[in-house]
Design goal:
By secondary structure, chain A is an alpha+beta fold. Chain A has seven helices and five strands; from the N terminus they run H-H-H-E-E-E-E-H-H-E-H-H. A five-stranded mixed β-sheet of chain A has the order 3-2-1-4-5. The chains are: A alpha+beta, B alpha/beta, C alpha/beta. Chains B and C meet through helix 4, helix 5, helix 7, strand 10 and strand 11 of B and helix 3, helix 4, helix 5, helix 6 and strand 7 of C.
Amino acid sequence: MQTLIQKVVEPLVSQSAQVCPFLIQKITLEKLLSQVFALEIADGDLDCLANRYLKVYVKDLNIGWRITLNGNHVQVERLGGDADVTISGNAKEFALLVSRQEDPDTLFFQRRLTIEGDTELGLEVKNILDALDHENLSFPLKQLLESVSHVSRFIYAA
Amino acid sequence: MELVCPAGSLPALKVAVDSGADAVYMGFKDDTNARHFAGLNFNDRKAKQALDYAIDRQVKVFVAINTYAQPKGWKRWQEAVDRAYDLGVNALIVADMGVLEYACNKYPDLALHLSVQGSATNHEALKFYHQHFGIRRAVLPRVLSLAQVKLAAEKSPVDLEVFGFGSLCIMAEGRCYLSSYVTDESPNTCGACSPAKAVRWEETAEGRESRLNNVLIDRYREGENAGYPTLCKGRFKVDDHVYNALEEPTSLNTLRLIPELSAAGVKAIKLEGRQRSPAYVEQIVRVWREALDAYAIERDNFAPRGEWLDSLSKVSEGTQTTLGAYSRPWQ
Amino acid sequence: MKISVGPILYYWPKQQVLDFYQRLLDSPVDIIYLGEAVCSKRHELRIEDWIELAATLSESGKQIVLTTLALIEARSELSGLQKICSNNAKISVEANDMAAVQMMSEKKLPFICGSSINIYNAHTLKILQQQGMQRWVMPVELNRETLRDILADAEAMGIGRQVETEVFAYGKLPLAYSARCFTARMKNLPKDDCRYSCIEYPEGVVMETQEDEELFTLNGIQTQSGYCYNLLPQLPEMIDLGVDVVRISPQFKGIEQIIQQFRDGIDQGKVDSGLIARQHCNGYWFGQSGMSTVQDI
């Protein structure tokens, strides 16, 4: 079952992500991230990303983005181009990370996640992500996280 | 024994409380605490929420103000003590004598714990802190053997707390300057050991390299588990051999010493890891809660369960654990 | 400004130790610290021997101070400490752990605090001064700015002239103390059966990075800097700041020459910075990483 899903679902996601025009990815992600981090942006916690780029690269899906803070908005750019820090790993690791099923340091020690570049910026982003209170999220966002959690549990149950 | 759990963020604090902590410890967002990392710790609003959440559920809150105050920042340490008092925390965890004196003079009713950074490894040192600052509890450095913990507990004028699980300092805490020798920050001065600003990881032809302020700490071959480039856990060359000259990347785990520690009269177990994620906190607190509850029932028949050990090993540095200095052969 | 020679941090054969102190008597040092500060298992000289040696040396007119262990864990270490703190020869004591501070202050005896007692501000300085501390050695990781501020605050608190300030100015820096013995570890021996391996390494064991950079020096349970700390060129600045004593940490060979350089520096009020070797460091003094070398301007 698991391999079946990995054989079928992952390429599907990968292909659709690559087919999905960048502009749509950009608009969706920017809206989502600005909403999720609204409190953190207001508190200045995300100022570390002002004029600096975080690159997130999902290796097995060959997709990724560069993320920065522009004023009060999260801005998402194409992969090509410089970044101050790059976090890379497979889709599974990111899903486990976002849904808080796995500890990022553990993933890092096991070399399932890689941080290259400005380590302090990378760890700061990690800490901000950790500090995000899921209870403050809007209902649809909570549901989204729940489904990431369910889907990843289902696909990657091991 | 009281279970004292780490909280580097509000979500971590909530899962610690929900998973069975008796007390949680946290720090403010500045260099007054020994986990002064970017993006970590509590501003005033979050600290208030944290207090409300924990107190509502009858869980105690300790605030760590456990770096050494230097003249230029003295006010910051004073204000941290004032803020913690105003928040209504259950105890302060302090290392610096100047800060201890300030807190004990200004807030005589506020419970003070001597931080592990205070580096008291014997009952004579504990007596000093008790006589002069009225500390009620001390956290012992992770350099003592079980027999030495027993000796300290037997003669200590105050309650003792020991480390149960987490990242392992092999040097006497509060008296280690390896980090400032290579970077310009240490736990004592800045609340940072091997600070992230000085860390670089690079994938090279020879493997993944970790550097601290350009000094090569380790090189990992394909498939090897990696560690954070803490100076005491790198691989270095001594007498032409390359090995972990000081210590391997490993975590302390004393689950199987619960009966001995309890018999020695240790009053609290501290879990390390304010810099780790809520997922880590949830896993370790749950295991330790179950273990302490099991010990309360099983007593002499207590033995750590395989699934507990697996669960703890998984989140450990180097995915391995040790009894550390508690066990003589390790030393 | 006075010159002190710190305790021998390594493990030398008894005769070498005795010869070393005999030679020191003829050198222009003012203060001699002696005794075991690192490992209680080292027994070439036992505590009684150190006390006796201290008593003999004190007849020379130089100030003699008995030092104590930095890491005190075992019952036997506490009773050894008690012997030193209540020595009949009335030799002064350097406390390197709060246990020694406690014992000396309980006896209402004066004492000196070594660099492993954490004095990072004048409030702490005052607390210890009130307990009988007469001199403090600045923690090695602190810099000149912090020292200036501490001394200014101490002055404002009215204790400025009641405590002497000593700075670790030459030698491998003591950086950390562990439960584990790294010398035994390198020999694949358990600490409880270390076979006193330290005696084979009169200046410790060099620990290099995989790129051949000298990083630390292993000395039993103590970790020292790889490079030698050297504040010789900073003598005039230290005198200005109000430092009373500069400490030179013993090395196996050539200490007389170093003492002479410091003596000349103090007497002449300036130092030729050409005397600084390549593998010396001074970063801590300038508020940088300890291992770095700053060219003072």
